[in-house]
Amino acid sequence: SYHMLPLSVADIEPPPAPDMHSLISVTHVCRQWRATALASPGLWVDVVATSALAARTFVERAGSKPIRVHVAIIGSKLSKSQKKALWYLLPHIRGLILRLRYRAELSLFKKILSKLATSIVDLGVLVCSPDPSQQQGRWMPMFRDGYRLFGRDACALKSLAIISPEQLVLNDRCPNLRALRIHQPATSAQSVPLTRFLSHTSDLEELVFLSPKVLKTRSPVNGVNARIRLPRLSRIHIHLPLNTTLTALEASVVSSICSFRVQSRRVGDFGQLGYTVRGRLEREAADHAVELTSH
Question: For the whole model, what pTM was predicted?
Answer without folding.
Answer: 0.78
